[in-house]
Every structure is written in C-alpha cells, then in structure tokens.
Amino acid sequence: MNPAPPDSARRTAPLTIAVGALEAIQNAIIPALAIAFSGIGGSGRFLIAIAAGLAVIVIGTGMSYIGWRRLTYTVGEADIRVESGVLSRAARSVPYERIQDVSIEAKLLPRLLGLVAVKFETGAGGGEDIALKYLASTEGERLRQLVRARREEDHAAATDMVAAPMRDEAVEGEALFRMGPRRLLTFGLFEFSLAVFAVLAGVLQYVDTVSSIDVWNVDLWRGWLEEQGTTIARLGPYAQAAGAMAGLIGLVMIGMVTGIARIFAREWGFVLTRSARGFRRMRGLFTRTDVVMPAHRVQALVIATGLIRYRFGWHGLSFVSLAQDAESASHVVAPFAKLEEIAPIVSAAGFRLPDENTHWHRASRQHRTDTAILGTLPFLLAAIPVAILAPPGVVFIPLGLAVLAVGANLYAWEFRRHAIDAAQIFSTRGLLSPTSQIATRLKLHSVEVAQGPIARLRGYATVQLGLAGGAFAIEGVPLAEARALRAKVLETIAATDFSQLDAGRDQALSDSHAGFSANLAAT
C-alpha cells in the first residue's frame, strides 16, 4: 500500500469504528444484566435491559464513527498536526524537535484487528502528548520511523524508510534482558496484592446503585455474620482455629494469585534490546506496548528494590528519561533482575555501576541527629495524651516506638551515601530496601544548594541536581562539601556544549554497540 503524500490530511484506520462498536458492546453488558436482575420494570425488565443495551451499542458505535470522521492528522515537513472534535474542533501542531519519542500501544481489542495506538511524547506529559487511535500496525511502525527521521532532519532517510518495508529493530539489536514465564512467576510472588477486594467493592457499589439491594446496610451484614458466627460456634475451638488459619491462608493465596496475574498481564513477553537507534522495550499480554528510548535521552538511572525481594538479590532498573512511561518520569527497563543482569544494561546506556574504587561520602552527623530527633517527635507527642488518659503501662507503647525510631534513623545513616567522580554522581539511601541513583554530569542542567532553618543552624544542606526528566536530591551534605560538589558540577555544565552533546553521545554509543556486537560475533 502506497502511503499518502506527506502533507495531506488523512484519517486513522477505518477499523477504528469496529473497535468503538466492540467497546460499546462491552460497556452495554453490565448495565443490561443489572437491569435484567433488578426490580426495574417488573415483568418487562428483560425487554428494558435489551433496549438499554442496544441503545448503548448504537450510541457508542455512532459516536465512534463521528469521532473517526472528525479526526485527521497531517505529517508535515516541520511538524505533525492533529485535528479532532465533534461539536468543537481542536487543532494541535507539535514540531518534530519537541517530540521526544513515538511509542506504540496495542490493547487487546485493537490488537485482534491488527491496530495500534501511536503516541507522540513531548516530555511534558498530560495534555501535551498526542495520540492517534488507531492505525494499522505496519502504518504505525512506518509513521514512527518517519517522525523519528524528520525529527533528526534526515529527509532522505525518511523517504527510504517510508518506501521500504520496516525491519524489526528487536531482531537487529542485541537482546539485553528478557523475562520468561518462570521469571514472571517468581516476580509475581513478590507482588502481593489485594486489589481484587477493591474491584469487589466497586462491583458492590454498582449493584447498590442499579438494584434494590442495599449492600451497605449494616443490619443486613450483621444478621449474616451472626448466623455464620452461630454455625462456627458449634464447631468447637479446634475447628474455629483451623477455620481462622484456612481463612488467613486463603487471603494470602488470593494476594499472591492477584500479584501473579497482574505481573503476567503487564510484563508478558518482556524483552529489552539495544540497537543503533537506542533501547527498545516490548511487553504486555492484553495491552502490548512497544517503546523505543533513544540513548541520548537517558538522563539518569534508578536501581530500586523491595523489602523482601532485596533479601533474595532482586532489583529493578529504570531510565530517567525526557519522555514519560505511564505517567512516570522513568522507563522501567529491567523490573526484576539480578545485579549481574543489570550491569550490561547500565554499560550499554553509557553509565557504570559503583565499584571498590568509588569514594563514598556519608551525610552530615548533625543531619543524622536531627533526623533521629524529628522522627521521634510524633511518638513523644502521642505519649503525652496516652499517659494522661490511658491506663498505666500503655504509655510505654509510644515510648518504645520512639526508641525504635531513633535506632532506625541512626542505623539508616550508614546507608545514606553519595559519591562523585569525573563522569558521574552516585547516591544511595534506604535501610531495608535501598534505592540508588546514578546521573551523568554531562546531562545535569543545574545544581542548587538548599538549606532550611535547621540546616542553616546545623551547617548542612541539600544538593538539588537538575535533570530534564526527573529530580535528583542529596540530603544532609556538609555545607563545605555541598559547595565543593556544586562547583564541580558547574564546571562540567560550563564546559559542555549541549547543542553537540546528543549527536556526539549517540555516535559514541552507536560505535560502542557496534564493537559489542562484533566482539559477540567473534566469540
């Protein structure tokens, strides 16, 4: 199929109307069932349910058709323009230079019809991003390549990309990280979740709205509990203990199954590849996302973990990027991995992990003391009314918690560290689940030394490092050391030509990737 001329307005795929019709059918099911099994309409409630369902389907399909007719997009020489709106028209124009990246998303229903949503990320997030729903998968990939080439002001390459069949970058690039079913199962076991009960509460709220059943009637549930309590009381203490244990085990199983289901739905088929263009991440069972992150857009790295998974050596790696990922400033590139699996990704992004040669600095001892004192204040204040109003001995509970807070804050100081070398700044914090940040000095846009009243009095500060895609703060740095760190960063910023930085970084990373591929082939 020959593409339309670059400057002509065109519509999204006609099958978008079919997606709207299928979504309307899906939206009509629950209201129709609710009416059919409620007291609305008496004996004629089934006819009312059918009529209501058909009305929802007709209206939804009609709105989908009108929306499709009224949405056009134009791929120009300098920008991409989108016009939409049924009653009021809106026209948006985004210059290519403002587009950080183009991502592709394929939810279940559109994917069954071979359609994808193409999102143009500007880095501002929210209403600043625009999306086209829906295009044929080949057309979506073609448009992504074209916009990326136009953004790089390579018109000749853009013409070749549009005319020639698209090659799969994931095949051309080296697979840096992937997760199979076994890894996903392990990941899911650490993602305990009781979200199913929130969904159940939403369903009960809906039933209460559309039916005559008052699900929030306290007397109704009290009567049911009393009835069940009478039955349980007849079983004896051993049976009651066994029942309580079975209920607890059931709750844990529900949480584990819910966590596993969420991980499989979000991370199925997870693969991260590195090619000359950058990093490409594909994942998702029902909603398949395909995101390409140019290497020069990576501002910093975040290595995080959890309370339990940390004890088993599992970590997650994210790129702090100009573009957003699901309304977050970070792109998750290795959500569940060992440090030895994270290291090649870090290296491919042009960063390095700290080693034995890294010279660490801890936060100020004054900051440690102040944090410990402030951490105990809520418990000490709570102890006053407890000592006055509560029975004797109860006051030792908040006092004991205050002692634990002091010990935890003093011990956490051992893990609050930072370091700087010729190329990077490192920071780590967290007692039970440490989080590390790594930023390259070349990508820092600003540096600020901030002090509150207590910090000014005690002689320490917070160093705020400006990143285009996120925040990087180092707390409790001794004032003299904070000023020296600021001077080093400002020296790097003053010596950096940011107009040439992206191109040079991309070329260096491309050469590095080529060398990595050659060494792998030789091996």
Structure overview:
The structure is a single chain. 48% of the residues lie in helices and 24% in strands. The chain is of the alpha+beta class and 523 residues long. The protein folds into 4 domains: 16-166, no CATH class; 195-266, no CATH class; 284-363 and 416-506, no CATH class; 365-413. The strands form 4 sheets. A 7-stranded antiparallel β-sheet has the order 6-5-4-10-9-8-7, with helices on both faces. Strands 13-12-11-17-16-15-14 form a 7-stranded antiparallel β-sheet. α1 (16-36) runs antiparallel to α2 (45-69), α7 (181-189) crosses α10 and α12 runs antiparallel to α13. Residues 154-171 and 503-523 have low confidence and may be disordered.
Topology:
Layout: H1 16-36, H2 45-69, E1 72-75, E2 79-84, E3 90-95, E4 101-106, H3 108-112, E5 115-121, E6 130-136, H4 137-151, H5 155-163, H6 169-172, E7 174-178, H7 181-189, H8 195-210, H9 218-233, H10 237-267, E8 271-275, E9 278-283, E10 288-293, E11 298-304, E12 315-325, E13 328-337, H11 339-348, E14 361-362, H12 365-389, H13 396-412, E15 417-420, E16 424-429, E17 435-440, E18 446-450, H14 453-458, E19 460-467, E20 470-478, H15 479-495, H16 498-522
Antiparallel strand pairs: 1-2, 2-3, 4-5, 4-10, 5-6, 7-8, 8-9, 9-10, 11-12, 11-17, 12-13, 14-15, 15-16, 16-17, 18-19, 19-20
Helix pairs in contact: 1-2, 4-5, 7-10, 12-13
